[in-house]
Design brief:
Order of helices and strands: EHHEEHHEHEHEHEHEH
Mean pLDDT: 81
Shape: globular
Number of helices: 9
Strand order of the largest sheet: 5-4-6-7-8
Distance between the termini: 43 Å
Structural class: alpha/beta
Length: 233
C-alpha cells in the first residue's frame, strides 16, 4: 500500500534459464525481437515464437499505468517484474457501481472522432494492433474476413481501413477494388495494407487496386503510428 486509497500490485516471475546479455535487455521488449547469442546451441534452436510476447505484456501493463521490467544475469536466469497501481475500493462501492450499461461494449461506429476499421484474421496480430490503436486513442472495429469488412464499411463511416492482404473470403486487394468501384463518398476512404510481402511487383498490383499505402510486416510502433496518423487525418 502506498496510502489508504492506493496500492501497487507487484508480480515477479523468476527463472533459472540461460539469462539475457546486458546489451539485449531493452531489445527483448521490442516487437518481433528475441535475445540471441546463447552459447547453448540446442537451447537456442528450441526457442520458438514471433517475439511479440514481451512487447504485448509490456503494453498491457502500461495501458494500466504500470510497468514491466527485467533483471538478468547470463547463465543464471532472469526475473521479470510487473507493477500495476490500483485504487483501493470499498466492497459496497463496487457493488453499487456495476450496471448492465457499463458492461456492454461500445461499437466504434457510435463514438466520435476518427474511426478505423481493422481487417485481420490472425488473433495475435489483432491483439497487437488493437493495443497500438488503443494506445493512440483511436476508436476502431475489427473484421476477421473481407466480406465482413465490406459490410462494416458500407454500414458505418470510417476514416481509415487497415487491412491485411491475405484474409479469408475477400483478399485485401479484392476488398480495395470493390470499395473503389462504389459510386459514393465512401469509395474515397484511405486504405493501408499490412503485408509481409516485399516483392515490388505485388506492390504495384496493390496500388492499382486502390490501396494508398503499404506497411510491411514486421513494423515498429513508431512507423505504425506515423502512417496511421497521416492517413486517418
Amino acid at each position: 500500500k502506498t496510502d489508504d486509497k492506493n496500492t501497487v500490485a507487484t508480480v515477479a516471475v523468476k527463472d533459472s534459464g540461460i539469462g539475457i546479455p546486458p546489451s539485449q535487455l531493452n531489445l527483448i521488449f521490442q516487437e518481433f525481437a528475441q535475445a540471441t547469442g546463447s552459447k547453448n546451441n540446442e537451447y537456442a534452436r528450441a526457442i520458438k515464437g514471433t517475439g511479440l510476447g514481451l512487447s504485448i505484456s509490456r503494453m498491457l501493463a502500461e495501458l494500466q499505468n504500470g510497468t514491466l521490467t527485467v533483471e538478468s544475469q547470463p547463465d543464471k536466469g532472469s526475473t521479470f517484474t510487473v507493477k500495476i497501481p490500483y485504487e483501493t475500493a470499498n466492497a459496497n462501492e463496487i457493488k453499487s457501481s456495476i450496471s448492465p450499461e457499463i458492461l456492454q461494449p461500445v461499437s466504434a461506429a457510435k463514438k466520435s472522432g476518427k474511426n478505423i476499421l481493422l481487417v485481420e484474421d490472425n488473433e495475435l496480430n489483432i491483439m497487437l494492433i488493437s493495443l497500438l490503436l488503443e494506445r493512440m486513442g483511436y476508436p476502431f472495429d475489427v473484421a476477421t474476413d473481407g466480406e465482413m469488412a465490406l459490410q462494416l464499411h458500407q454500414k458505418n463511416n470510417y476514416n481509415l481501413i487497415l487491412t491485411d492482404i491475405n484474409i479469408p473470403k475477400l483478399t485485401g486487394v479484392q476488398l480495395s477494388q470493390l470499395i473503389r468501384k462504389e459510386n459514393n463518398a465512401k469509395s474515397k476512404i484511405k486504405i493501408v495494407a499490412l503485408t509481409a510481402t516485399i516483392v515490388n511487383d505485388d506492390f504495384d498490383s496493390y496500388y492499382e487496386a486502390g490501396i494508398n499505402k503499404i506497411l510491411a510486416k514486421p513494423f515498429k510502433e513508431e512507423k505504425f503510428r506515423k502512417v496511421v496518423e497521416e492517413y486517418a487525418s
